[in-house]
Specification:
260 residues; alpha+beta; Metallo-beta-lactamase, Chain A; 2 domains; 6-stranded mixed beta sheet; 9 helices; globular
Amino acid sequence: MTGSILNISDDFWNFRGSYKIGGLLDVGTHCSLVRRNSGKWVMLDSYSLGRRALQQVATLTDDGNDIEAILNVHPFHTVHVERMHELYPKAALYGTARHHARFPDLPWKKARTEDDELHEKYSADLEFSVPRGVDFIPEDENLHFSSVMVFHPASSTLHVDDTLNYLRLPLLMRAVGLGDSVAFHPTLAKVLERRAGAAQEFKQWAQNLIERWQTAENLCAAHTSALLAHDNAGASLHERWQKALDKVESTLEAHQKKYG
């Protein structure tokens, strides 16, 4: 799916890109373009768009003039931040605390993407949620669990980086029944805050979000793939998400036994 353009609705486009670990394993990455009710567009995350994607964005946004903001929602997705700003310098630039620290010379807006102030600003079109009970920006920079999750109700689409993954196995593996799955990022155990109540906070956050966003039908995940309603031959996204939470129950219980 790397390099593809997903037209989820007239108001939501997802651009799949390439990101190689060690220069070999391509785990992919993405960004999304969302049209607000005002007619202006918002970019979720940053990626150095290829020629086809650039042409598509130009067509949709009057050569980029209608992109009002770039919202970088994952603290550790920083490779393409400078390039995205170069492509659309007129767009207001938002990022997490780590984006601000890593690129202090970029013209960041004061509100950060994890802040309620930013969420309220775009609340007419987008809903945001920051995972609870886990380190949002852990000291160990190899732990990329947390991101600001973004839901676009108008297209029933969830944009997420790392926190929630969708794994679609190759055709031969699917043919023998291995199928596909939605799961929380495997680093959950390492990012749960080392204090009493953290596991319960995470579980409550996740359960509340599953119910609050139960109308979500499309999942655009960064490093794996996108689960779209029209291609989904299995359980609904709501059911898959609930199953993903059930699967980490033992992790949460182990943490609770250790920290309370």
